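Supplementary material to the annual report.
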Amino acid sequence: MKSIKIKEIKEHLNEEVLLQGWVRNFRKASSKLRFVIFRDGTGELQAVASKPDMGAENFAKVKDLTIEASVKITGIPQKHPHKEGVYEFHLRDVEIISSSPDYPIGKKEHGPDFLLSVRHLWLRSPRQAAALKIRHTVYFAICEYLNDHDFYRFDSPILTPNASEGTTTLFEVPYFDLGSAFLSQSGQLYLEAGIMSLGRVYDFGPVFRAEKSKTRKHLTEFWMMDAEAAFVEHRENLQIQEDLIRFVIRSVIAKNLPELQLLERDIARLKKADAPFKCCTHREAIDFLKGKGVDIGYEDDFGAPEEELITTDSDVPVFIEKWPKSIKSFYMKRDPENADLVLGADLIAPEGFGEIIGGSQREDDYEILKNRILAEGYDLENYEWFLDLRKYGSVPHSGFGIGLERLIQWMSGIRHIREVIPFPRMINRIYP
Amino acid sequence: MKSIKIKEIKEHLNEEVLLQGWVRNFRKASSKLRFVIFRDGTGELQAVASKPDMGAENFAKVKDLTIEASVKITGIPQKHPHKEGVYEFHLRDVEIISSSPDYPIGKKEHGPDFLLSVRHLWLRSPRQAAALKIRHTVYFAICEYLNDHDFYRFDSPILTPNASEGTTTLFEVPYFDLGSAFLSQSGQLYLEAGIMSLGRVYDFGPVFRAEKSKTRKHLTEFWMMDAEAAFVEHRENLQIQEDLIRFVIRSVIAKNLPELQLLERDIARLKKADAPFKCCTHREAIDFLKGKGVDIGYEDDFGAPEEELITTDSDVPVFIEKWPKSIKSFYMKRDPENADLVLGADLIAPEGFGEIIGGSQREDDYEILKNRILAEGYDLENYEWFLDLRKYGSVPHSGFGIGLERLIQWMSGIRHIREVIPFPRMINRIYP
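Predicted assembly:
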């Protein structure tokens, strides 16, 4: 008898096959009829267990099934009598591989603390599995777009001697006789070395922030894609970001419709975001917020409520560009039209999902960059190599970073970031 | 005038175009003729600078070029008069974007310490760029194979509360009020939770070993792919590994021929490895080594010289399977035919490149696994969640891990591991 996967079911109609997987759920219809939902990672399937068809002995085994027991089942896949594109599995026999007594996640509501403490089991729940399948798609949609546009993957180091984004939120690691290393918060600076060799590069790995924030958008360990391109200036940088995000939207809709439906994502709204993005300056955004009665100044950053307000009336993401240099990183290039501004932009997703990209053209002038580093009070010694990139064949270049989990939150509509990464790390959570 | 990339050159023959990139090298042929090699990340190009063609003023600018200066060049691409598939660029004008005085890497031989101290510049050298392009291919060939075979990407955490491979080589990180976290050495245990949800999963990220080894095969931070699959047993596990590695070989040969040639890789030998792999038991391997006069016992692991001997006469990689349980990890499943052995296998690459994969079927029995953990002296509390996976719907399952850098060493023929990762981290090296 052929052993198949649930996703192959429609190629084996009316043929006796073997499936291996887990019991998602079951329901007693009558003393002679039960329905069991099986899953195997490639899909889910409703099996019909009929006592007259199976015989009393095999039917008795169906009664012993428990939620999350692992099983081998044999039977015959058939088209659902009424529902187009739906298949049923007519059970012949069931063999329990391993039981699952008192599976701790039940139908009742559990609090997040309990669910996080059994994250290794919670992962099996339909919403969690759906989120992780969308994560897979988003990850590779980003890679596919970049690979198709001359970007090489260039893994920046995690253990670093210095910080690119300030020093208060760093995890410190004792490193042999060399003192301390710090866990990377962004690979960007390293990518700027990479472009001088390969033209366009990106990394896509874990980054770390020892932030004491405990919100639905914060993890201490999360995944970040940093891209960097030589000879790309501010405006083209935004265009690459827009094309990339729109490609991700289309990929998720094409590949994860069942998951989006299960998560009750408003797919029409997601589709609407696949249109030309809007762009305004930081100053215009502040003026808009002031008009809405927000108490905010021209040198202020935005919080979540402001980001939400800015996109309230927009179907598409909004770039906010040209920020005051006082609130942005030292490596951003100054706006040639106004030395107080930098050619940076944040991309704010609609529907209240907030910032999904931060990027900028980079300062490519040796003297200006050196003075920016000194003005920040950083130790010049740590940045000698970074300054070298402006000493030997400097070129105009730009880049941007995408927080993977925040992008998945938007794509999936999942409100809390802890549900879009397999094992979330938070200020109070390191286990399992 | 159209701005193009070097890789597009053959679509623009006899048309005046603009290129942006860096000066790789130059050569004076006569007082009126110079050759300049340009590169832009997408390729390299020889430009012909002829004083009669360019005029004296523009020709003078060519004389000012230095190695690694960044430039805009205009000119006309043409077919090489004699060499098939080779293109020349007839220079019209040159504009220096940024000079590169006293570029520190010259034509003379530099020692590895110096080159590592300028890794941010060394990356531009032809061999280094070639290695990183092969790295890109190997990374995505692994992903492509797995994605096409029902594996979902499942990012395991880096910050972990416990160790999967002993505790002497862990990097320790203070973690808020929770005490210490440890940098992951392998995501495998987490993947075993993932398969219970998604069937087949893999991770592919940085792992860390605080090993004091200083060899050409050791990094403290390297990239590892861990794959895990439900309902896959020992023999099928080896087949998946073989198919995957052979797919990687074909991908590298298909996509990186120029890089392999530049690195003087013996491509014929690489091609020969794309054939059915060999397999022997650990005991057979020991017998073979004893026959060669090696002083080794039946409970011993192999070192690099032994691995090299084992594959001396083999064109293809060799699996060494069924290891004594005393020298392998606690989670490996015992051989049903011999309780002293485990169903683990290492894959040894030919040509002296050593181990590239370690894998095994996993212990899926709750009691046996619990006793193995206790016998190792590990704290059971740290493994409660891992044991849960055997309590609730346990299934036979297997997995394996590939050290990315070691696989790239073999594919590229590069002898030292420090050259196949952008910024190598070693016991004495954290900068840049």
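Chain B touches chain A through 94 residues (CB under 8 Å).
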